[in-house]
Specification:
Length: about 290
């Protein structure tokens, strides 16, 4: 499938500061964003709440929230395993006029159910339940990137923009290690923590889920911002080329992080925040 629109690619050198915005040099500012907000204020610890989900596989999810409940919303979606706690730094520094929400995905943290929910559609339904009354920016890391893309397909009226961080979208790049099969063997599976059991089951099903999603990616129209490290050994950088070819219906901007690995939300937080700010610029909401 050939792309029909231009893609903006921003190549971030390995020496670019990545933790706090105020450490960016002017050259990096011009390269990354064209404009740079000041340092984010540090607010109170995020609060925990619960939401009902209208889906046959998910009844209730737990989430953390901070900022202005009526503000422009960002929903953060973790990979596997993981939980909302992985996004606490983003929730402690919520810009004025925004609402930050981080979900415990179904099967993880304090969310239902106890077992795995491998369906991207079910996971997307849980994410969509936290969007609120107007379109939100969805930020997904790793398998969370697959989920926010599914949400944009299934709930376009709720998605204003996507930020896909080290996201897995190309089914042909998925590999199953023999140890993952072994982890499904009853005696071993019973010894594994819930998060590991459920993550393993999600990963075993992911290729089929991505195969089902791939034809629908062209229907996404929300501006999409891809942040990916060139040395990602868990979710290959080649996923970016797949997104360029498959997501032909949306404006696409790519942050190519040279020599960086899979764990971008933690060691490259300022660059992820830069992509979120850029998403709001495109939405005209912040």
């Amino acid at each position: 499938m050939a792309a029909t629109r231009a893609t903006l690619r921003i190549r971030v050198p390995p020496d670019a500061p990545s933790q706090r915005r105020r450490h960016f040099r002017p050259a990096h500012v011009l390269t990354l964003l064209r404009r740079m907000p000041g340092p984010r204020p540090t607010g109170p610890a995020p609060a925990r709440a619960y939401a009902r989900v209208d889906h046959q596989h998910v009844s209730r999810v737990s989430y953390l929230h901070s900022g202005d409940p009526a503000g422009a919303r960002v929903v953060f979606v973790h990979g596997c395993p993981g939980s909302a706690d992985g996004w606490r730094a983003y929730l402690r520094e919520t810009p004025a006029g925004r609402s930050h929400v981080a979900i415990d995905r179904p099967g993880f943290g304090r969310s239902d159910p106890a077992g795995a929910v491998a369906s991207l559609q079910a996971q997307a339904a849980a994410v969509a339940s936290l969007v609120g009354e107007r379109k939100a920016v969805l930020v997904g890391h790793s398998l969370g990137g697959s989920i926010v893309a599914r949400a944009a397909v299934d709930y376009p009226e709720r998605v204003g923009a996507l930020v896909i961080v080290a996201g897995a979208l190309d089914p042909s790049l998925e590999r199953i290690h023999p140890a993952q099969r072994l982890g499904e063997w009853g005696p071993i599976r019973q010894l594994l923590p819930r998060a590991v059991r459920n993550a393993n089951r999600e990963l075993l099903a992911l290729q089929g889920e991505l195969d089902a999603l791939a034809p629908a990616l062209a229907s996404i129209t929300a501006p999409t911002f891809v942040v990916h490290g060139t040395r990602d050994n868990l979710v290959p950088f080649a996923n970016v080329a797949f997104m360029e070819e498959a997501m032909i219906g949306c404006p696409l901007e790519i942050f190519e992080l040279v020599d960086r690995n899979h764990f971008l939300p933690w060691h490259s937080r300022a660059l992820v925040e830069a992509a979120i700010d850029r998403a709001f610029e495109r939405m005209g909401a912040g």
